[in-house]
Write a structure and sequence with these properties.
This protein is 65% helix and 0% strand. The chain is mostly helical and 98 residues long. Helix 1 (5-26) crosses helix 4, helix 2 packs across helix 4 (74-95) and helix 3 (63-70) packs across helix 4 (74-95).
């Protein structure tokens, strides 16, 4: 609210880059954390995903702060954020007429 689409898009791009860097640094010692829902068949966002998106975009909170406040691991927050972001991207792309 009050932010332009370009600003939000840039913030999302930076967040994705941050996530990629974090995941590269931490390595893949464990299999990725599964989302509460199967991201390929996700019909809607979970309340947790909505809360993470809200805290990330509207409150400009870091993933570490969000994880601490929601009592989740940072990896879980990253995974839920990515699933929610992909869901929104897919939904927005399907709404654009060809």
């Amino acid at each position: 609210m009050g932010s332009s689409v370009k600003d939000i898009s840039n913030e999302v791009s930076r967040a994705i880059d941050d996530l990629r860097n974090i995941l590269k640094e931490k390595g893949n010692d464990k299999p990725p954390i599964k989302s509460q829902r199967n991201e390929a068949h996700q019909d809607e966002l979970s309340s947790q995903q909505i809360e993470i998106l809200n805290r990330r975009f509207e409150q400009k909170s870091s993933f570490a702060v969000i994880a601490r406040e929601l009592k989740l691991s940072e990896k879980e927050v990253h995974q839920e954020f990515l699933c929610a972001y992909q869901y929104l991207q897919n939904r927005n792309n399907s709404e654009i007429p060809v």
